[in-house]
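Weekly structure sync, notes
Attendees: PL, DS, HV (note-taker this week)

Item 1: Phospholipase D-like domain-containing protein
DS walked through the input record. Source organism listed as Microbispora corallina. Sequence as pasted into the shared doc:
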Amino acid sequence: MQAVYAHRWAVPQTVWRRLFQAASREIVILTYSSLFLAEDTGIIRLLAGRARQGVKVRILLGNPDSPEVAARGTEEGIGADVMAARVRNALTLYRPLAEVDGVEIRLHQTVLYNSIYRADDDLLVNVHAYATPAAQAPVIHLTTIQDEDSAAVYVTSLERVWTIGKALDGSQ
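Item 1 (cont.): predicted structure, written out as tokens:
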């Protein structure tokens, strides 16, 4: 384990940038919206740049029309409509990345137990807690090399959700 942050908002911006900048093979984002990243134009440019340099970028967001996204909004106390709107906003901000070769965006309809941000062997896992906004929940930084068993659980989960996700145009 590299680090534990008490809250997602406590993860320094430099950590997010270093995570994605260091990727040489793959970047994967699994979340409902990750609006905090989508609003960061520097991160969007960084993801586009990494894809242009041959790094595969996969982004997997919650389907804003799904009951899972609605339930999450209700559980967090912001309302189903607000959570769906956050996802739609993020989709609008991420959509230009879909035009970049090497970037794929899919939607999922799963109960999201953790948001997972992967760059090659490094993972930032936002550990969700019932009725707690993701920004308030802890984040653990794992590496598949040092934390092989723990990290493998999250990598497997991420890949399972990716497999059942649907491309933005509705195809799989």
